[in-house]
């Protein structure tokens, strides 16, 4: 099965900073990659699908890129409401594996 | 309003069984594939199972294969997860989620709508 890794596992940044999270698949998955945001105590929310397509209603400061095995999620200007754990997920085929998550908080 | 509401969680002894339900509203349930996802306390997300809109395609994570059974009743707008031979490591919040794509006929995709989750605790 394809394994998903994320780096870093956690980060602390200032409001307004540019934040980048990396997700890597152990084998190529084309662009079948989604990003989710889970705020503390809340339900996961779809941010990006097809590696770079923003889900409706998601702020434009979020963006995704990549294809094959390497992907990134970028927050162009970190806001206090972005404090959350971010998960990547592959969906080219079952199993639909999630990455271990990256916890983002404010410095 | 598009909504998914899970129910059926609770405390069960190791080796026991539990049936989770997910009631869908606000969209045409029969057009969408559905998923179960779980999250152990303080841990990350784990995909559990998928069922296509017509129930013709079903997938399971290796960790639950042979113990869990996913099903749906499109007439009742409901998704189910029958869980047997439960283990302590199955303790988690279980979420149902909707496939992003309308009428995908067995092709999996991202999960665009999530329920609030139901807690399953396996302990003696």
Automatic annotation (TrEMBL), chain A:
GO biological process: adaptive immune response
Domain Ig-like: start-end pairs: 2-99
Keywords: Adaptive immunity, Cell membrane, Immunity, Immunoglobulin, Immunoglobulin domain, Membrane, Secreted
Superkingdom, taxonomy of origin: Eukaryota
Lineage: Eukaryota, Metazoa, Chordata, Craniata, Vertebrata
Main location (coarse class): membrane
Localization, UniProt: Cell membrane; Secreted
Record-given protein name: IGL c2367_light_IGKV1-27_IGKJ3
Keyword Protein transport belongs to the record: no
Cellular component GO terms, alphabetical: extracellular region; immunoglobulin complex; plasma membrane
SUPFAM superfamilies in UniProt: Immunoglobulin
């Amino acid at each position: 099965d394809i394994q998903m890794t994320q780096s870093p596992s956690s980060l602390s940044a200032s409001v307004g900073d540019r934040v980048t999270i990396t997700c890597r698949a152990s084998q190529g998955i084309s662009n079948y990659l989604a990003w989710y945001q889970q705020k503390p105590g809340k339900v996961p929310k779809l941010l990006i699908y097809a590696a770079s397509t923003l889900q409706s209603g998601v702020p434009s400061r979020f963006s995704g890129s990549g294809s094959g095995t390497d992907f990134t999620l970028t927050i162009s200007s970190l806001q206090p409401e972005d404090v959350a754990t971010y998960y990547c997920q592959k969906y080219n085929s079952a199993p639909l594996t999630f990455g271990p998550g990256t916890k983002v908080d404010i410095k | 309003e598009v909504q998914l509401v899970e129910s059926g969680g609770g405390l069960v002894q190791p080796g026991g069984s539990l049936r989770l339900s997910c009631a869908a509203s606000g969209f045409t349930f029969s057009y969408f594939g559905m998923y179960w996802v779980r999250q152990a306390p303080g841990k990350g997300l784990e995909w559990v199972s998928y069922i296509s809109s017509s129930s013709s395609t079903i997938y399971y994570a290796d960790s639950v294969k042979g113990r869990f059974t996913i099903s749906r009743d499109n007439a009742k707008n409901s998704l189910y997860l029958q869980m047997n031979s439960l283990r302590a490591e199955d303790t988690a919040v279980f979420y149902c989620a909707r496939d992003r794509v309308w009428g995908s006929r067995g092709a999996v995709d991202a999960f665009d709508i999530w329920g609030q989750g139901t807690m399953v605790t396996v302990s003696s």
